[in-house]
Amino acid sequence: FSPGLLVVAGSFAAFRLLNRALERLVPPPPSARRNRWKWRNIWTSLAHSVLSGGGALAGFYLHPELSKDLVGTHPPGAHSLVAVSVGYFLEDFVDMLCNQKLHQSWELLFHHSVVIVCFGIAVLLHQYVGFALVALLVEINSIFLHLRQILLMANLVHTTCYRLNSIVNLGTYVVFRIATLAWMTRWLFLNRQNVPPVTYAVGTVGMAIMTPMNVILFYRLLRSDFLK
User: Fold this and answer.
1) What 3-state DSSP class applies to 192?
2) 36, 52, 77, 176: which has the highest count of C-beta atoms within 10 A?
3) DSSP letter assigned to residue 28
4) What kind and span of H or E run contains 100?
5) DSSP assignment, residue 29?
6) pLDDT at 90
7) Is the pLDDT of residue 228 over 80?
8) Tell me, what's the pLDDT at 157?
9) Which sequence ranges are marked TM in the entry (predicted)?
């Protein structure tokens, strides 16, 4: 039994409670009232992105040894942050499964399954915590992705705020999502001799799935917000 599982369970419950409370904390505008669960879901995801993206940056700042050893170093705060993220992705998985048709959410469900497996290994084994923290840097871009969805649902597409967010979103997408995934793929390739075969296979499959998904999403964002 790993104490990290308690953090996962606590995180799942906390994000579930937050999801339930958000409709009162952030009432949906008239344009979003027909899709209330989605409004709550995006705000819950935004809360996780702020927590995990900011936490990952703080983790590397407070524990510089993490960047030197992505496998064996596991400060309690960094390990707990990865466990909290597992709890969130489980909560979001359940939320989508209960409220959205499978053909509309299968891409995200598949993405969440890969993340839960990869992060779960780090939580249970107390290894690859630094590598998982690198992956959480992606959530810095997710902040602006979720803000974009919120502005779309609030019918604020033709505003300066939406345009500024689109520019920052695309910039952080390149820096914190595409570049981060490319760096992780390179790290796996260079360290293949030092990573157990099963873990290496899971990581390689994860990168092989995430990279094309993120390239496709980048093209969709570019086409929707700029090429039109």
Assistant:
1) coil
2) 52
3) P
4) none
5) P
6) 97
7) no
8) 92
9) 131-147, 167-189, 201-222
Which residue type occupies 11?
A: S
Is residue 139 within 8 A of residue 88, CB to CB? The reply is no
Q: Which helix (H) or strand (E) holds 48?
A: helix 36-62
Residue 123 phi/psi, 5-degree rounding, is: -70, -45
Please state the length of the chain: 228
How many Å apart are CA 34 and CA 166, to the nearest integer?
25
Q: For the residues 181-195, what does the mean pLDDT come to?
A: 90
Write the CB contacts of 102 (distance below 8 Å, at least 6 apart in sequence): 109
CA separation for the pair 107, 148 (Å, rounded): 19
CA distances 180 to 68, 131, 186, 206, Å, are 16, 11, 10, 14
pLDDT tens readout for residues 94-133: 999 999 888 888 888 998 999 999 999 999 999 999 999 9
Candidates 145, 132, 44, 56; CA nearest to 94 is: 44
Structurally, the chain folds into a number of domains equal to 1
Tell me how far apart the alpha carbons of residues 74 and 72 are, in angstroms, rounded to a whole number. Answer: 6
- Cβ atoms of 19 and 40 within 8 Å: the answer is yes
Range of the domain at 44: 3-227
Residue 1 has pLDDT above 80, yes or no: no
